[in-house]
Amino acid sequence: MIADQKVKELENSAVELAITVKQEALVDAYTKVLQKYMKTLQLPGFRKGKAPASVLEQKFGPSMREEGVYTTIDAAVQEALEAVEDKYKPLPYSQPSLVDEDSIATEIDKDLQFAVTYDIMPLFELPPYTGLSAEVPTVEISKETVDKEIEKLRDQSAMVLEQDKVVENGDIVTLDYVELDSEKNEVEGTERKDFVFTVGSGTNFYKMDDDLIGMKKGEVKSVEKSFPEDHEYSEYAGKTISLRLELKQVKVREVPVLDDEFAQDIADEYKTVADLIAGTKEKLANSLESHLKEVKLQAIIDKVLENIEISIPKTMIDVEVNSSWNRFVSQSGMPEAQVLKFLEFQGQTKDDFTAAWRESAEAQIRVQLLMEKIKEKEDFTVDEEELNAEVETQLKDITDENTKNYYKMMIEEDMKTQKAGDFLLENNSFTEGKVVSYDDFMAGHQH
């Protein structure tokens, strides 16, 4: 069918595939179309399937030739794609589109020439990716950092106990409140029963923290609350209202003393406060090491990417962004139609909302392509016993063998990617950069 085919590389990892189809193939396709309609069409004056070919050609010739040409184009594109080099195969989600479709001839008296374009996997050569050097921050785990972490443990272990005492900042109170009108009558719809909050937190509409200081359980108190002219709720802006408070309960958080007994409560391996401090510092160091490993790997990857141009096709970015969108919708807990409606209320479309994701998606794809290329070049292998152990751990609840084998391949690729990362860390060097605190470093590297 195909007399000739040529591939031309375009920008943004696209190609143009030019195809020449022999005239004989066009004639054959037209003949099949004609025979099909001779069997199925019923024209006035003729029984079904009995109209002569000359009558059909006179009445429907142009449309039948056009159908034959486009049928031939579809078949020729499939044939050509099977023959092209692997590097020029289209991406699974990139459909070939005709170039200058309006100019395609639909006559069958000569060879047909046409072209299609589609996106391919980005083509690039690996630059040096070993023997490089990158700077990473020097992170210090100070005594203050360890102390702060232990204070968190104490705070998490605190007990909340009711006490018969006057309210102080930090106490947890339960109260009833209601607005009063000018005649000291309750304003309908403003009553709140058993409202609980921590005094001093400011987590209440009326900002009544200071008004509760010094009150005791069972005490009732009326207070005046004024609102600024620019208050976010217009019905309160610039107004002063009366509020009646009734304190029903006072609780305090009792933080345990930092002693050997507390250390033993935290973990069996701790016998003393010194053990707790040492163990806490070790946990912080392990967490830091894990995050620093990620930072080092990203620093080397950035170094490699500085010396390479990877042109990412739009379809690749579209797929990545759409995947992120699907995760976003899933995490929202709402149907997609409802999410889209919510965006519409805000004057946004899905494309508007996801536009900001495209840059990070493109960057992520570059990293993935680079790592895949390194994996291919280094030909990493995974120990079968190690792989099976990981499969057993991750897929223990999956019984269908086909599903299990599919995920097994994914796990194997993930393990090879891990090996590629370890390879880059082992075969490149790192210099110590500016000193930063543990808290500052971790604040910028939380997942």
Describe the secondary-structure layout:
Layout: E1 2-9, E2 14-21, H1 23-40, H2 53-83, E3 97-98, E4 112-119, E5 133-140, H3 143-156, E6 159-162, E7 172-180, E8 192-198, H4 209-212, E9 220-226, E10 240-254, H5 260-266, H6 273-305, H7 314-332, H8 336-345, H9 350-354, H10 357-378, H11 384-394, H12 401-426, E11 429-437, H13 438-443
Parallel strand pairs: 5-11
Antiparallel strand pairs: 1-2, 2-4, 3-4, 6-10, 7-8, 7-10, 9-10
Helix pairs in contact: 1-2, 3-6, 5-6, 6-12, 7-10, 10-12, 11-12
What can you tell me about this protein's structure?
- With 447 residues, the protein is α+β, with helices and mostly antiparallel strands.
- It is 46% helix and 19% strand.
- The mean pLDDT is 92.
- The longest helix has 33 residues, at 273-305.
- It folds into 3 domains: 2-119, Alpha-Beta Plaits (2-Layer Sandwich), CATH 3.30.70; 159-254, Chitinase A, domain 3 (Roll), CATH 3.10.50; 272-443, Trigger factor, domain 2, CATH 1.10.3120.
- The strands form 3 sheets. Strands 6, 7, 8, 9 and 10 form a 5-stranded antiparallel sheet that branches.
- A hairpin with a 4-residue loop joins strand 1 (2-9) and strand 2 (14-21).
- The protein is built from 13 helices and 11 strands.
- It has helices spanning 23-40, 53-83, 143-156, 209-212, 260-266, 273-305, 314-332, 336-345, 350-354, 357-378, 384-394, 401-426, 438-443; strands spanning 2-9, 14-21, 97-98, 112-119, 133-140, 159-162, 172-180, 192-198, 220-226, 240-254, 429-437.
- The radius of gyration is 36 Å and the shape is extended.
- Helix 1 crosses helix 2 (53-83) and helix 7 (314-332) packs across helix 10 (357-378).
